[in-house]
Amino acid sequence: MNSFTFYNPTQLVFGKDSIEKLPQMIAQFTQGKKIMLTYGGGSIKKSGLYDRIMTLLSDFEVTEFGGIEPNPRLSTVTKAVEVVKEKGIDFILAVGGGSVIDGTKLISAASKLDNDPWDIVTRKVTPEEGVPFGTILTISATGSEMNSGSVITNWETNEKLGWGSPLVFPKFSLLNPEILYTLPKNQTVNGIVDSMSHLLEQYFNEADNSAIGDAMIAGVMKEIMKAGEVALKEPENYEARETLMLGATVALNGFMRMGYNGDWATHNIEHAVSAVHDIAHGAGLAILFPAWMTYVSDKSPERFAKFAEDVFDVDSSLSQQEKVDAGINGIRDYWTSIGAPAHLSDFEITEDDFETFADKTLFNGPFGNFYQLDKEAVMAIYQLAK
Ligand code: NZQ
Ligand code: ZN
C-alpha cells in the first residue's frame, strides 16, 4: 500500500431523528443567524421536507437559494455566491443530493474570494477558507455528504470537472433513510449504480496489497446489491434504505481507499459524456463501467478473477477466463435487472461524439491509476458502450 493519512471531519448524524437535531448542529459552528438554504428543483417542497426544515430554522433569518440543477452549473453557483456576499451569510444548509451539495461546496469556497468560482475548479486559485455548511441528504449516491470533492459543469465550455479541498468537507450531514422514500425509481437506480461504481473504482487500484480494502469493498457491494433489489420493490422498506444510504456514504468517504487511490478512469469517461449531453451520472456509469471492465480485463485477468470470487462467490473450479467473464457479466446483468441503461444509444448518443468526448477525457493526458488509458483505448471503450 502507499503511505496515507486518513482525515474526515464531517459529523455524520444518522437515523429517523437526525433532521430534528438541525438547530443544535448549526449552533456548533456559528453564533450568527443568517442561514442560506440551498436546494434543487423542488422535490423537497413536494415531500414536505422543506416545511419541516423551515420550522426547525424558525429562530434564524433564512435566505433561500433553490434551483441548483442535477449536474450543477457554474452559472447557478456564481449567482449564489453573489447572494452570500451581499447578505453576509453565516452558514449554508444544503438540502439535496450530490448536485446540491457539490454546488454548495463551491459556493462556500468561492464566497471567500474575489475570483470567478471556475478558477477554483480549474485550480488557478486555492481556497483558504469557506463559509461553513452542513447538509441534509435526500438521495444516496455520491458520498458528497461526507467527502471533500465536488463536480461542476460549465455549460459555456461543455466541461464537467471535479475539484476538492479539505475546507469543503461538510461540517455535518444529517441522514434519515425515510427521506429516500420519495425518490423516483430511476434515481434510486442511479444511486445504486453510482455507489457501486465508486466501489469498483477503488477495487481496481494501483496497490500491490489491498486485502482490507478488498474485503470491505466486496462486503459493502454485496449488501448494496441485496438492499437495492428490496428498495426497488418496496420503496418504503426502512432497512433497505438504511443500507443503501450508509453504503453510499462509506463507499466514497475515504474508508475504502486507505493505501491507494483507485482507478477513476471510468468517472472521467462518464463526466465527458454528461458535460455534453446532461445525462444522469449514474446512468452514464451503468453504460460505461462494463465497457471499461471488458476493455481492461485481459490486461490484468488475475485481478478480475479475484473480483468475481470476492463479490460473486464464483466456483473456484472455474477457469480464470470464466471467472473474469462471471465478474463482468455479474455487474452488467445486475444493473440491467434493476432497470439501468446499457447503451449510449439509449440516450441517442452516437459515434459522432466519441472523439469530442475522448479529447475531453485527455485534458491532462493519459489517465487511470489501475490501467492507463490513451486516446485509442478511450475510443475503444466508447465503441464497446455504443
Ligand atoms: O432537484 P430536485 O427537485 O431535488 O430533484 C432531484 C434531482 O432531480 C431528485 N431527488 C433528490 N432527492 C430526492 C429527489 N426526488 C424525490 N425525492 C427525493 N428524496 O433526484 C435528482 C438527482 O439529484 P442529484 O443531486 O443530481 O443526484 P446525485 O446525488 O446522483 O448527484 C449527481 C451529481 O454528483 C456528481 C455527479 O457527477 C453529478 O453531478 N458526483 C459527485 C461526487 C462527489 N461530490 O463526491 C462523486 C460522484 O462520482 C459524482 O461525480
Ligand atoms: Zn460517481
Automatic annotation (TrEMBL):
Source organism per UniProt: Macrococcus hajekii
Entries under SUPFAM superfamilies matching the protein: Dehydroquinate synthase-like
Domain Alcohol dehydrogenase iron-type/glycerol dehydrogenase GldA: 9-177
Keywords for this protein: Oxidoreductase
Domain of life of the source: Bacteria
Protein name: Iron-containing alcohol dehydrogenase
Single GO MF descriptor: butanol dehydrogenase (NAD+) activity
Record domain Fe-containing alcohol dehydrogenase-like C-terminal: where: 188-383
UniProt GO cellular component terms: cytosol
Pfam families: ADH_Fe_C, Fe-ADH
